[in-house]
Design brief:
The chain is α/β, with parallel strands linked by helices. The protein has helices at about 35, 45-65, 80-100, 110-115, 160-170, 175-185, 210-220, 230-255, 270-285, 300-315, 315-320, and strands at about 1-5, 10-20, 25-30, 70-80, 105, 125-130, 135-145, 145-155, 260-265, 285-290. α2 (about 45-65) packs parallel to α3, α5 packs parallel to α7 (about 210-220) and α8 (about 230-255) packs parallel to α9 (about 270-285). The structure holds 5'-O-[(R)-(carboxyoxy)(hydroxy)phosphoryl]adenosine and zinc ion.
């Protein structure tokens, strides 16, 4: 079964065709980075306009010259920017009506976990999922397809948000995560001992204290007192990575889970990937990291999720005529919606 995925929740216009939930046939992503760069953040109105201009070409590109056939469309309905989400949902509904195929709504955050299932046939529920994106940091117990328990989340800033804010403090280009990742490659992670928020006894995270610590450090250490920016990046990154890896492994141990998926833009971080891989070897866990290009926003993860939703719930319960967007859509089990 081929599913056409459509994703427009933030600043990437994306479409993809995925076969049987696991194999990517084609994937197309139009990034808006160059549009938002000068504002050092995503401007919602500009994002919506760019989605409108690009969505048809991106879908055509995903279907390819041979116009791949598809049996259903899966589209992100939330969370995200409401105007941006609407472009994808309206396009999907129109296409579904014109082509007589069902349209399935997908949660973007769940999508980041389904990215781990793509091209990894050995990954099967139950497993632990860590979502680390620009707006969310969540540990999810993925019991079955569509049956979730949120174990913890961030109490303030998301991991990606911390990367973006610290990059701004250091005057590095938008988006901050990849800038810090690049700089940190040549830095010393032990140069500055930034604080780690452990919040013992919970599976929650907190990154705003770390961001404030970097800000204060920069106020106190000026001129020649300040270590090279590469060292600051590596030290900040190490503090984020330490907490994400340790708390995820702790949750895996508590819930006796042997498979762990990490998804979302921050999962593209090279240091985080390496740290998870070596910790997993040590603890005899299997860690599943999507290919770097499928960590950040894409539509293959939405198509994959749509396939499992259709398979699990059946057509009647999945394809809704009234499909709409929800900017604050939480990760909840399918049965609860
Ligand atoms: O999942 P995503 O593409 O969009 C959202 O759903 O939010 O995540 C974007 C976030 C941004 O905060 C970006 O700075 C961060 O992921 N990010 C990274 C890296 N690549 C993207 N953070 C750290 N290292 C990276 N290599
Ligand atoms: Zn995302």
């Amino acid at each position: 079964m081929n599913i056409l995925g459509i994703e427009t929740s933030c600043d990437e216009t994306a479409a993809a065709v995925v076969k049987d939930g696991r194999r990517i046939l084609r994937s197309s992503v139009a990034s808006q980075m160059s549009i938002h760069r000068e504002f050092r953040g995503v401007v919602p109105e500009l994002a919506s306009r760019a989605h409108v201009e690009r969505i048809n070409a991106v879908i055509e590109d995903a279907l390819g010259k041979k116009a791949l056939p598809y049996d259903a469309i899966a589209v992100t309905t939330g969370p995200g920017l409401v105007g941006a989400l609407l472009i994808g949902v309206v396009t999907a509904r129109t296409l579904g009506w014109a082509k007589h195929v069902p349209v399935i709504g997908m949660n973007h955050l769940e999508g980041h976990l389904f990215a781990g299932l793509v091209e990894h046939p050995s990954l099967k529920p139950p497993f632990l999922g860590l979502i680390v994106s620009g707006g969310h940091t969540e540990l999810v117990l993925f019991k079955k397809y569509g049956d979730y328990q949120t174990l913890g989340g961030t109490r303030d800033d998301a991991a990606g948000e911390a990367f973006d804010k610290v990059a701004n403090l250091l005057n590095l280009p938008f988006p901050g995560g990849p800038s810090i990742d690049r700089m940190a490659q040549k830095g010393d992670p032990k140069a500055v001992d930034f604080p780690r928020a452990w919040i013992p006894g919970t599976h929650d995270f907190s990154f705003s204290g770390l961001k404030t610590a970097v800000s204060n450090y920069l106020k106190v250490h000026t001129g020649s007192q300040r270590p090279p920016v590469q060292d600051l990046c590596a030290s900040f990154q190490e503090a984020v990575v330490d907490v994400l890896v340790a708390k995820t492994l702790e949750a895996a141990q508590t819930y006796r889970l042997k498979q762990v998926v990490v998804g979302g833009g921050v999962a593209a971080n090279r240091r985080l990937r390496a740290a998870f891989q070596s910790a997993a070897r040590e603890k005899k866990l299997q860690i599943f990291l999507p290919d770097i290009s499928f960590c950040t926003d894409n539509a293959a993860m939405i198509a994959a999720g749509g396939y499992f939703k259709l398979k699990t719930l059946g057509l009647k319960k999945t394809a809704k005529q009234s499909l709409n967007v929800d900017a604050n859509l939480p990760v909840t089990s399918w049965a609860a919606r």
